Amino acid sequence: MSVEKMGKLQVRVKRVNDKVGRTIPTPFYATPGSAGLDLAACLDEPVILEPGRRAKIPTGIAIQIPHPGIVGLLFPRSGNALKHGISLTNAVGVIDSDYTGEIQVILQNLDPTDPFIIRPGDRIAQLIFLPIMQAELLFTDRLEETERQSGGFGSTGR
């Protein structure tokens, strides 16, 4: 199926800070092929993130995901990760379909020496929408045999 025929997910967005769309950019796809919406820091003044520290950074928006089979996932921006060691403390942020509060991003400075300045309007994370499935757990005393079995960390080689 072509992308043109797939349609688009319609997500309602609420400004929880009136700076969004004025002095703070609204979420946007940086290129036509971008998977994630860039989210901006909705701050009154810069935040200095010291090495090894973390901070909760508001985005000024809340969203309503229209279906429980969809999740919003927050990912770090690769440029900030590579150039400055900035990542999300929780690795990937999960926005459940029933959460309608402000999206806030927990950033962490993994650089051992340099502080990182987050300025109002800086792009701080990417938001991606994906389908999900909730599982029905069926407890059992036995699992089906597989080639790997219980081989864990590093068991499949390099």
Write the layout of secondary structure elements.
Blueprint: H1 3-6, E1 12-15, E2 37-40, E3 47-49, E4 54-64, E5 70-75, H2 78-84, E6 86-88, E7 93-95, E8 102-109, E9 116-118, E10 123-131
Antiparallel strand pairs: 1-4, 2-10, 3-9, 4-8, 5-7, 5-10, 6-8
Describe, in plain words, how this protein is organized in 3D.
- There is one protein chain.
- The chain is mainly β.
- The chain has one domain (about 10-130): Distorted Sandwich (Deoxyuridine 5'-Triphosphate Nucleotidohydrolase, Chain A).
- Helix content is about 5%, strand content about 35%.
- The protein contains 2 helices and 10 strands; from the N terminus they run αβββββαβββββ.
- The chain has helices spanning about 5, 80-85; strands at about 10-15, 35-40, 45-50, 55-65, 70-75, 85-90, 95, 100-110, 115-120, 125-130.
- Strands 1-4-8-6 form a 4-stranded antiparallel sheet. A 4-stranded antiparallel sheet has the order 2-10-5-7, with no helix packed on it.
- The longest helix has 7 residues, at about 80-85.
- The protein is globular and about 55 Å long.
- The protein starts with a helix and ends in a 27-residue tail after the last strand.
- The mean pLDDT is about 95.
